[in-house]
Amino acid sequence: MKSSPGKPGILVISHGSPDSDWVAFVDEAVAGVAVELQASIPIVSSFLEIVEGRLIQDGIDQLEAWGVTDIIVIPLFVSSGSTHIDEISYALGMKSTPEKETDLEPFSLSARVFFGDPIDDDPIVAEIVWDKVKELSTRPEREMLLLVGHGSRHEGFRQRWERGIAGLSARVGRLGGLAHADYALLSPDSLRSKVSYWQEERGYEVIVAPLFLSKGYFTSTVIPSRLEGLSYRYLGEALLPNSRLSRWIYLQILNIMGSLKL
Hints:
The protein folds into 2 domains: about 10-120 and about 240-260, Rossmann fold; about 125-235, Rossmann fold, CATH 3.40.50. Helices cover about 40% and strands about 20% of the residues. The chain has 8 helices and 8 strands, in the order βαβαβαβαβαβαβαβα. The protein has a 4-stranded parallel β-sheet, with helices on both faces. Strands 6-5-7-8 form a 4-stranded parallel β-sheet, with helices on both faces. α1 crosses α8 (about 245-260), α4 packs across α5 and α4 (about 125-135) packs antiparallel against α8. Pfam families: CbiX. It comes from Paenibacillus motobuensis.
């Protein structure tokens, strides 16, 4: 007997923030994906924490209430080294145990789950980063780009952070035709030492680009405070808002649906 076809739906998951602009920028990006989907597939934006009424379980419940049987999860995080990727995939039943202990309980769901990938070194995102900082570049042959991410002190997670951000910084450097590209993490902290090395020891003009989903405490306070007294160029612009991020989400959805024939 032939089984009936499933009904796919999209669940975009990001961290969440008490800043209403942060949430609004994410919602704007997801709305852009909805336009691309042309209402053919339901899509919901949910958050790991803070945004009450729109947490991950709320998103699951909403999709299942619409009859969704196959949930494509897009983790809107900048790195596979985030411990949140580990705990969310565990709570969604994608792995039997988390790599790092978590308070996140398994979610209640009936639908099948297909888990996408975070940003890491995606070429579309490299274009976004360069768009955000290119006005700072005047002599590319004497400039280097330093991409700054949150990072992780946890073994295994830190290495994933490093792989993704190293690849992404190299992509951005090539796009801008810059002399060099490198990365720094806030945890464990390598930011000040990297800027000092490239500016003082190597003699390059340093363009600092934050790798964060949206502007906030890290982009406006933490990064500038750790670089106080050093010479560098910085605008503090995060990935959002930018319509290309909607495109990144949309293409990932198409890729998953194509591979699974949903």
